[in-house]
Amino acid sequence: MSSNRTDAATSLFVAHRNLLFTVAYEMLGSAADAEDVLQETWLRWSTVDQAEVREPRAYLVRITTRLALNRLRSAQHRREAYVGPWLPEPLLTSPDVADDAELADSISMALMVVLETLGPTERAVFVLREIFGFEFDEIAAAVEKTPATVRQIAHRARQHVEARRPRVSVSPGEARAALDAFRIAVETGDVQAMLNVLAPDVVLISDAGGVKQAALRPILGADKVTRFIAGGLRKAPDFAIEPTVVNGSPALALFVAGEFDGVLAAHTQDGRITGMYIVRNPQKLSWLGEELTLSLR
């Protein structure tokens, strides 16, 4: 490839890089895997004759989608053998992500957990259609199905997700207020205050990959969640909690003996926490060192 063609290819790739990373992350739930997919996308894109490509954005998304689908299918058996629940890798997102309600909702831990219940093709179709707004013929080219089949898959996937995703969105301020109340209750050891900020039917999911202590199954109900947290704190008395922003939403950073130990993301409704997602697996925390800029366009 000539220098001018290389420069043109590079410019187009860089212009769409944030979008491509977001597509891959939404499909894979792994920042590390998404970054690997982008590297592969670039390698393939760099060999393409740009003069033959009418819509670079759609073409790049098609490459990214196919590579992400292949990786997702190959990862399924590893996730089935994973120790305890598998949660998406949390991302430290830039402030503009939190300001974009549509983007923040699309990468929220609550929705990402629901996306894990879809099959690979269903997930790709849902992500491209419902989150990024691609047309059915564009999605069909990416997943190598007919437009009619993609319409059917999209309908099933939408019904599946809507039946499971949180129905109420709250402002970052409301979410932060609930998390601050929870943080203060934990720091002061006030069990009643902790119960007050947890919804009666709260669900806690923790992911440590068998490396650290975590519940091997989801914990249901405020009483059980409170006992689980209190038990964990007794085993790690030298702890600290700090506010942070993960996946576009308020969250908490957890520290034990001065060392970063994990993150707690949450979903709130009516001033109470309804879902808690704790990630302690060190392999899933490596992308929290720098803010990422994501994009739906």
Description of the structure:
The chain has twelve helices and six strands. The chain has helices spanning 3-28, 31-45, 56-80, 95-99, 101-106, 109-115, 120-131, 136-143, 147-162, 172-188, 191-197, 222-235; strands at residues 198-207, 219-220, 239-246, 249-256, 259-269, 272-279. Helix 1 packs antiparallel against helix 2, helix 7 (120-131) crosses helix 9 and helix 10 (172-188) packs antiparallel against helix 11. The longest helix is centred in the N-terminal third of the chain and has 26 residues, at 3-28. The mean pLDDT is 90.
**Separation, N- and C-terminal Cα atoms:** 28 Å
Amount of beta strand: 15-25%
Indicate the radius of gyration in whole angstroms: 20 Å
What percentage of residues falls in helices of 4 or more residues?
40-55%
Q: Tell the overall outline.
A: elongated
Largest sheet: 6 strands, mixed
Low-confidence stretches: none
Work out the helix count. Answer: 12
| Strand order across the largest sheet | 2-1-6-5-4-3
